[in-house]
Specification:
Elements: H1 2-28, H2 37-46, E1 51-52, H3 53-60, H4 64-76, E2 80-84, E3 92-96, H5 98-119, H6 124-144
Antiparallel strand pairs: 1-3, 2-3
Helix pairs in contact: 3-4
Length: 149
């Protein structure tokens, strides 16, 4: 058991760091090199439908103030459009501009290509085990750390 804990920890840390490095490199070598990986993840959290600042901040686990700083940069770079909610003028809605939607689609495609390349190399049985294990790990983190479900 102790050996498993060490191996799983090392693999999770390495995978997390490798994925961030791969994403960062892909972003830097794309037409969206003016975006940081954090900004790309904000675009990802916004998605195709306008959302409130509070919803996005809650989803990515930051304060509205922290998100505001990122949104200000993304508005200036013309990836995000900000407007007052028509239903309740107290709320600010943020949505992707056409350029933001393009960046989102390309990043989404990048993720799909990366995951497909990995999954294609596994047998059906290994894929089933991987999916089941990741579901359990995901559920554990959500329960253990009170993450939004």
């Amino acid at each position: 058991m102790k050996g498993s804990i060490k191996i799983v920890n090392e693999l999770l840390v390495e995978l997390f760091n490798d994925i961030l490095t791969i994403e960062k490199t892909a972003l830097q070598n794309s037409k969206f090199s003016d975006l940081s990986i954090t900004e790309m993840h904000v675009l990802e959290a916004i998605g195709y439908n306008p959302r409130t600042m509070t919803d996005v901040a809650d989803q990515i686990g930051v304060t509205v103030g922290t998100l505001t700083t990122s949104i200000n940069r993304l508005v200036k770079k013309e990836y995000v459009i900000r407007k007052r909610s028509e239903d309740d003028r107290r709320f600010v809605e943020i949505g992707l501009s056409e350029q933001g939607k393009l960046a989102y689609r390309i990043h989404e495609s990048f993720h799909q290509t990366m995951v497909k390349a990995m999954v294609d190399k596994l047998s059906d049985e290994d894929n089933a085990v991987l999916i089941n294990s990741l579901k359990k790990l995901n559920q554990f983190f959500k329960e253990q750390y009170n993450l939004i479900q």
